[in-house]
Write a structure and sequence with these properties.
Length: 382
């Protein structure tokens, strides 16, 4: 028998015919009374299928135990769009009109580079597009371009203002957001653990300067971060069983008002959000120059503070988005997943390893103006 060894089956071995057969899309189609094409579109949450029909298909799939193969679904999506298998699947980063200025800020620039680098490691590429305005025609235009480019997932950049009826727009895409505040659309998102950041900074400062640490918190920052720092500050003092020093809840300093606040609060130290605030404090209250810490520390800063690890936040954005794609999750999910990256304490003057130059070189040019028009022209002809 050509050297082959015939091994008789064990009496205890289960017969192959007793194994349950995998549920196929054909089974789901028969159970829901639809074509396989319609079932395929419904399972991909395609807007051409009415929501009631999509729910009917999801119910049938759940009842039968149907499970999609994420890798095959991704491959078929690329084939449908005419994308060669050697091309990287595309993700989109939607950023504000002030993208170039935002990238100069460490948090935004490094989070974007972290997302780009992580995408490359996972076999994806990221293209940066301008955030549409409030006009529905602008959102429709951007959606056409992203679909023509074969975009599978969208990252909404910092402080993205989303329209209230974003749900249909999101239907073909996986989507995540950078930061806590994105209107009524509660997207899956990655953000700094600002609550812990504030409490950790207060504890550190209390050991060095004394227990009475006050807080200067800009109103705009407090609103954008959903009052996480203010809540942590109140909780810290409640846990201490002491009355908290009054918070200086102002966007800018008015010298007389600021000095009056310091006189009332009588703090041992002062917690600020960033270096700009610390410099203002140093000008108007030089005695506090050595008793300041920052919630958003920068490499080489003259003050200690909390490093929010923006590069790692960007990596986590891509991880969260790609996980959705692999699970075939599209559109706004039924519940919101939030990933927080825990910060770390840094000393004054401390340096950190720079983001690799290759990440900056890999950053795509911001698509705007004529380039964006060319992209739309290309989508119209595809």
């Amino acid at each position: 028998m050509n050297g082959a060894c015939m091994i008789p089956p064990s009496e205890n071995a289960p017969e192959s015919r007793s194994r349950p057969l995998a549920v196929t899309m054909r089974d789901v189609a028969e159970a829901s009374g639809l074509s396989r094409a319609a079932v395929s579109l419904a399972l991909r949450n395609h807007p051409s299928i009415p929501e009631a029909t999509r729910q009917k298909v999801r119910d049938a799939a759940a009842r039968l135990g149907y499970r999609q193969n994420a890798l095959i679904s991704t491959l078929m999506t690329n084939l449908r769009r005419g994308r060669h298998e050697s091309e990287c699947p595309v993700l989109a980063w939607l950023s504000s009109a002030f993208h170039d200025q935002q990238r100069k800020i460490r948090f935004y620039g490094e989070s974007e580079r972290g997302a780009l680098d992580r995408a490359a490691q996972l076999g994806f590429s990221i293209e940066v597009y301008p955030m549409p305005g409030f006009a529905p025609v602008e959102w429709a235009r951007t959606r056409r371009i992203l679909l023509a480019r074969g975009v599978q997932g969208v990252i909404f950049g910092p402080q993205a203002a989303l329209p209230p009826d974003i749900h249909p727009w999101l239907a073909p895409f996986a989507a995540v957001a950078l930061g806590p505040s994105h209107g009524d659309a509660r997207l899956p998102r990655v953000q700094s653990f600002l609550y812990h950041s504030c409490q950790a900074a207060l504890a550190r400062m209390g050991k060095v300067h004394g227990p009475r640490i006050a807080l200067w918190l800009p109103i705009g920052f407090d609103e954008r971060t959903e009052h996480a720092v203010l809540g942590a500050y109140a909780s810290h003092w409640l846990h201490q069983g002491r009355t908290a020093p009054e918070v200086h809840l102002r966007d800018k300093i008015h010298p007389g008002e600021f000095r009056a606040w310091l006189e009332r609060a009588k703090p041992d130290g002062l917690l600020c959000v960033n270096e700009e605030q610390a410099e203002v404090v140093e000008r108007h209250a030089p005695a506090f120059g050595g008793r300041i810490a920052l919630l958003d520390w920068q490499p080489g800063s003259r003050w200690p503070g909390m490093d929010q690890f923006p590069y790692q936040i960007g990596q986590s954005l891509t991880d969260l988005l790609v996980a959705q794609i692999h699970r075939n999750e599209r559109g706004l999910p039924p519940y919101t997943k939030v990933v927080v990256v825990e910060p770390g304490w840094r000393q004054a003057g401390e340096q950190v390893e720079a983001v690799p130059v290759r990440a900056r070189e890999a950053s795509p040019a911001f698509v705007s103006g004529q380039a964006f028009q060319a992209a739309e022209d290309g989508s119209a002809g595809s």
